């Protein structure tokens, strides 16, 4: 576990990849929320 944490957060490339993954999850969550809001009946 410590190896993976060092690999992800120990250098700039791992940190950038984690930022990209979290931003992608956030954008997908926002799009799903927007889709659910739009498809609700009035």
SSE-based structural type = mainly alpha
- Number of E strands: 0
Helicity, as a percent range = over 70%
Q: Beta fraction of the residues?
A: under 5%
Describe the structure in your own words.
It comes from Shewanella violacea (strain JCM 10179 / CIP 106290 / LMG 19151 / DSS12). With 42 residues, the protein is an all-alpha fold. 86% of the residues lie in helices and 0% in strands. The longest helix has 28 residues. It is rod-shaped, with a radius of gyration of 16 Å. The model has no long low-confidence stretch (mean pLDDT 88).
Secondary structure layout:
Layout: H1 2-9, H2 12-39
What are the defining features of this structure?
DUF3149 domain-containing protein; transmembrane helix; single chain; mainly alpha; 42 residues; 86% helix
Question: Could you provide a short overview of the structure?
Answer:
By secondary structure, the chain is mostly helical.
């Amino acid at each position: 576990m410590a190896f993976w944490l060092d690999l992800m957060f120990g250098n700039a490339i791992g940190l950038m990849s984690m930022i990209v993954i979290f931003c992608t999850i956030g954008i997908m969550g926002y799009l799903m929320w927007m889709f659910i809001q739009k498809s609700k009946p009035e």
